[in-house]
Amino acid sequence: MTQYAMVIDLKKCVGCGACALACKTENNTALRHAGQAHNFADFQHETSGKFPKTKYMTRPVLCNHCSNAPCVKACPVTPKAMFKTKDGITMHNDERCIGCRACQEACPYSKMDVKIGETSVISYTGDEGAPHDPFFTNKTEVIPGCTSSGAELAGKTDMPPHRTKYDHPDYKDVRRSNITEKCIFCEHRVKKGQEPYCVASCPARARIFGDISDPNSEVAQLVKKYKGTVLKPEKGTKPNVFYIRSYNAR
Question: Of 29, 56, 143, 241, which has the fewest CB atoms closer than 10 Å, so is most exposed?
Fold first, then answer.
């Protein structure tokens, strides 16, 4: 059976943030909510060693679409709001979600790490119908008669903030309030034969997406060639996001 997976090549990734911006554009996520980062595509930054022998790493993170997903097990509703699709994507149904955040608590990848910080792998929604920060619609000038407002500035660009509209049976393009949400591998694109938007937008092609159950697929070949690793393998979640090579490799 198909098992969709993503490979992230850390030697190619320079932490430019194109994937995160692409994800926010495609999925209409808020810039921040309740003072917390709100990203389906997030990053961990880590510096190790002692000067002058130090190493720096930027590691992109997202929902790992685990084959043994704790978030699915923790979801208390029936039928489950967090569930697995037949092709291995960990999916979230908006209408069944009651906002209890049990999935978020169960996910070992949403927890605080003292060294590299918390990641928003599973997030809690912002306001319904507000896909972008209020800055872009705010008509108030910071300095009256001197500076422009956010709305005026957005109106002068070639492509002001917009809402990417798509149809999905489980997931609205802008989620309602008080539910959890996360990366779904852009399933609305995948089912049309397109790549997740973070993959399509990476200028270095550091992200590769495909069916890892097919030994001839690019993702399977890369994981085999470079002995791909996953985050927190000791948790037994069997992630389907793999990392290959190293940012510091020469």
Answer: 143
Distance CA 68, CA 78 (A): 19
Q: Compute CA distances 97 → 1, 124, 187, whole Å.
A: 27, 11, 18
Residue 84 lies in a domain: yes
Question: What is the per-residue pLDDT across 145-157, written as a single tens digit (0 to 9) for each?
Answer: 999 998 888 888 7
Contact 90, 65 (CB under 8 A): yes
**If you average pLDDT over every residue of the chain, what do you get?**
88
Cα–chain center distance at 21: 10
Give pTM, 2 decimals.
0.86
What is the DSSP code string of 60-95?
Answer: EE-----TT-HHHHH--SSS-SEEE-TTS-EEE-TT
What is the percentage of the chain residues whose pLDDT exceeds 90?
Answer: 60
CATH code where residue 26 lies: 3.30.70.20
